[in-house]
Amino acid sequence: MSFVEVSGFAKSYGGNTVFEDINFVLARGEFVTLLGPSGCGKSTLLRCLAGLVSLDAGQFRVEGEDITYAVPQKRGIGMVFQSYALFPNMTVSQNIAFGLKMQKLAAKVVASKVAEAIELVELGGKERAYPAALSGGQRQRVALARSLVVEPRILLLDEPLSALDARIRRSLRQQILDIQRRLDLTTIFVTHDQEEALTLSDRIFVMDRGRIVQQGSAETVYTRPANEAVARFMGNYNLLGPQESRLLLGLDIDGHLAIRPEVIRLFAADDVTPGLIPATVMHSQLLGNVVRYQVEAKGVALQIDCLNRRAADLLSDGNRVMLHIAPEDLQEIAP
Amino acid sequence: MAAEKIVQSMAEIDAADGAVRCSGAWTVRGIARLEQRLPAFPWPAGNDLVIDCSAISSFDTSGAWVLHRTVRLLERQGRNVQTRGLRPEFGALLQLVAARATTSRPAAAAAPGVLAGIGHWAWHGMHGLFDMLAFVGESAVALLRSVLQPHRIRWRPILRNLQTAGFEALPITGLLSFLMGIVIAYQGADQLQRFGANIFIADLVGLSMLRELAPLLTAIIVAGRSGSAYAAQIGTMKVTEEIDALRTIGIGTQELLVLPKMIALIIALPLLTVYCDVTGLLGGMLMARSKLDVSFDVFINRLGDAISLSSFLTGVAKAPVFAAIIALVGCFQGLQVSGSADSVGRQTTVSVVQSIFLVIVADALFSVVFNWLKI
């Protein structure tokens, strides 16, 4: 029996469908990410799982128990919000202890559990601080501790890192993963950031226009996108239509060809190795450790990502180069 | 360098050897001149037309729209048009524009008639009423559960609410009822003096203050003061997702937010009403003495004859009902807040208007019932 079973979830507001036909199962301790562009319905889906938004149709079972119509406080589901949602008039300790105090637990038990939670999120020394005195990352760790201290069966994370700067985001991301692994806690994480999804998840569910269009491991979703929408969202794929495929590669196909930007290799313009395609650099963008080139080859525009090894290797706009695209890197995908 | 030249150039379109070639910056800055030229552009003859877009160096929504519109225009003329060479990211933008573009301007929706307006109003009103009834039901169940399990009652927030809604309201309610007593006595003095019935000023001030004005005035002040504060507090918590956070850590909003406020107000409002009875009578006494020469002793003696215990109790008995109305409406409207901060202000205003309206309706019903019961 699966730990979590979601079947036939559907939600609409008025005539607008937010999501429909959502089905998935999760194993205990699994870390799953709902990934998709803004407005695809992923946050609403998460709020439906938490019971904060009512469903139009569907069934939600956890450990075999049907909790489709249970109120949020009876579901045993913890949730962390993008806006932290801390209680501003309470200290860090009081924020974390609040749920336990409302359960009328003994003061000693509350104190011990709060101390454990504070240690877990590495906020020692901040027990008496108010949320206003904390940084964004610290506030989000308080929110995480507050939701973990009540020992939920499932943890929902609604874009918890979106409001943080890049450096804190990376460190908190790792901390979330460490805590999740240590507690073996089934976790559903919502994000629109591919990097977060790829680094954190056991499985990724890619959502597009209210449907899960692909689910699989990070590697599968990245290297084998199920359709054009996933390819566009996951990795700046070069998508070639039938005409472009014919022009560039001489291939006759009905659908689209997807080529990842990092698999196209660049060679010097005077390289005469057979199978190379002549191209011109139209534009280059330095992204730190990667350089992104827009090139034109046989009338087809392509994007190529190269490692930024040496400044002398950087190409300028108008430079002529040769391209190599290995046949095994071509993927035919559904529109 | 050739590439730089393309980047810097304006949007261009050329026809040569039966093919059309687009180049340059198809952006809002460069598209205007091209758009003027398009109606007179010499499109090559023939059914099949290929537009080569490989030399377009930059592309935004304006460029995408002009290209999409041009292609549609040619297709409507019966031509088979193909665009090629557009970069993938430009192609995505063109697809997005094409998906959003409408083939024809939809007919303007007719303004809803009076009947439709009434229908909408009634429909929304009915939904609001059902939601409110559901909320009252939930609150009643939570209250009953707390009464049966007193350890669930949260006394600290009740005491805090008693202080803010009760004790801190003493100055304003006292002053206003004192002034109300003065106004009633002042207005009545002229009429009573004409008939030599000065002593009956005690009846006038006593009955009107104790039975009607003190409970009503106190309830209206508390609705404006505490009811609005409840709506604003809960509404702000809703906007900052604190309410959602509470629910996901196992805390019901009724138990934590609604019941302490309701219980505190049910205790505070009758006490405030009695206090306003006293200050109102003081105002009346002061005016009776200065305008009608009715001394304090005479006024108080007459008051004992004119006012029965039931008159006093009917006034005080209304207060808990008014308190429940104010607390429930304030909390309910706070929980109706959705989206942004301006919704907090809107729902706060609604809470004050609704609670004052419902208090007056309840007062009217009390009058009818008391009259029917001959109290």
Describe this entry's structure for a reader.
The complex is a heterodimer of chains A (335) and B (375). With 335 residues, chain A is of the alpha+beta class. Chain A folds into two domains: 4-233, Rossmann fold (3-Layer(aba) Sandwich); 238-333, Beta Barrel (OB fold (Dihydrolipoamide Acetyltransferase, E2P)). Chain A has helices spanning 42-50, 92-102, 107-120, 136-148, 166-183, 194-200, 218-223, 228-235, 242-249, and strands at 4-13, 16-26, 31-35, 57-62, 65-66, 77-80, 154-158, 186-191, 203-208, 211-216, 238-240, 256-259, 265-268, 277-286, 290-297, 300-307, 320-324, 331-333. Chain A has a six-stranded mixed β-sheet with strand order 6-7-8-3-9-10, sandwiched between helices. In chain A, strands 13-17-14-15-16 form a five-stranded antiparallel β-sheet. In chain A, strands 2-1-4-5 form a four-stranded antiparallel β-sheet, with helices on one face. In chain A, helix 2 crosses helix 3, helix 2 runs parallel beside helix 4 (136-148) and helix 3 crosses helix 4 (136-148). Chain A starts with a strand and ends with a strand. The model of chain A has no long low-confidence stretch (mean pLDDT 92). Chain B folds into two domains: 2-100, 2-Layer Sandwich (Transcription Regulator spoIIAA); 146-372, no CATH class. Helix content of chain B is 72%, strand content 8%. Chain B contains 13 helices and four strands. Chain B has a four-stranded mixed β-sheet, sandwiched between helices. In chain B, helix 3 packs across helix 4 (88-100), helix 8 (201-239) runs antiparallel to helix 10 and helix 8 runs parallel beside helix 12. Chain A binds chain B through residues 47, 50-52, 71-74, 77-79, 81, 83, 85-87, 98-99, 102-104, 143, 146-147, 150, 152, 156, 232, 237-241, 243-244, 247, 280-283, 294, 296, 299-303, 316-318, and chain B through 1-4, 6-7, 52, 54, 57, 82, 84-92, 151, 240-242, 244-245, 247-252, 255-256.
